[in-house]
Amino acid sequence: MKTESSDDVARVLVVGGGYVGLYTALHLQRTLKQELRRGAVEIVVVDPEPYMTYQPFLPEAAAGSISPRHVVVPLRRVLPHCTVLIGEITALDHAARTATVATLAAEQAGDADVVLPYDELVLAPGSVSRALPVPGLADVGIGFKTVEEAIGLRNHVLEQLDIASSTRDPEVRDAALTFVFVGGGYAGVEALAELEDMARYAVRYYHNVQPEDMKWILVEASGRILPEVGADMGRYTVRELRARNIDVRLETRLESCEKRIVRLSDGSRFPSRTLVWTAGVKPHPIVAASKLPVTGHGRLRCTAALRVDGVDHAWSAGDAAAVPDLTAPPSAAPDAVCAPNAQHAVRQAKVLAENITATLRGGEVRDYAHEYVGSVASLGLHKGVAHVYGRKLKGYPAWFMHRAYHLSRVPTFNRKAKILAEWILAGLFKREIVSLGSLENPRAEFELAAGTGRHNETS
């Protein structure tokens, strides 16, 4: 294995380029400006992708309200004073202060992985989808955590409308027009609501498909959806979705989805060519592989100062970290931790950067404390729910607040301006309803021309 030299420079290794990784590195650039200028400190950000995805805008990207390239933030552009390394952390040895990184270049050239020494570790790889051992799920399930999945799902939904419009087989048509979403959290509800809104608009251009022909089903194992916005707004959301002929099934689980047949725990059974899985997340596997202390839920056990509990020079925040909630009410459990959401992650990143800076300069660290202010959720164009600072909003005001809040939070003025411009243009012109499914296999046309495509193989 190749080991990069470690000189007198203090190296801060940030694992992950999501909310915590990006914002921590962004704040470190500012707080350690003098040290970076002298060459006394190096900040290295490692992530498999060269961008951060602003996930709250994924539903709007799937619905076509925002261009996909505007929901991602290029790491190199916003972190000019950091070293951005595109690769996957395959091993961490914190006792030796080294991380093993598999890079694309090493994979292509057949070289050994890079062993990267560090002085301070920020372990913030985020989370991955939590897939359960449901028969058929691994074969047909579609996730909704990345921009690739969001755009792939948009193309898939529009392709199903094309299939339903062009077939005379009632079974194929029913399966194409049945869309099942499993999971009643933010991702599932917002994705379903935005895509149903888009599909309802799209079918006006199909002569033989009507809105009532489509079946949209939301499956949730618990007795409520969107728990973050409170029980009242959750019940309102159920009523709003059902008023749009969306079948919301609470206290129901997915039993199987083999051979495009969805079976639920309530005994129902129906064909479907679309199954979207948003039923929870779990910490990235590198968290367990790091051998750092974790909770029973697999998250890193951290102090309020965002240090990994009992481990020097190791820090964490966000989805992968269990950070004590110092603002929890007295009635809460004594071991209450901050919710793994963007609101906490962005604020934790700032405190984390300040604490690392204080540690490098021999100063004092401070604890993270932020009282949760509430949540907003979009339910499609001009529809939403919100519970912020104790106030409950629904409909257009909640939708407007959702857009305003997330526009203020997306990184860089450049992204803010482009997203705002797209919203204005979308309000003036009709939606785009074109499926670009060929993007998933861009070489198909050339392979056909070269005589290696599917049509040639079967001719």
From TrEMBL:
SUPFAM superfamilies: FAD/NAD(P)-binding domain (SSF51905). Keywords: FAD, Flavoprotein, NAD, Oxidoreductase. Residues 11-336 form the FAD/NAD(P)-binding domain. Belongs to the NADH dehydrogenase family. This is NAD(P)/FAD-dependent oxidoreductase. It comes from Streptomyces lunalinharesii.
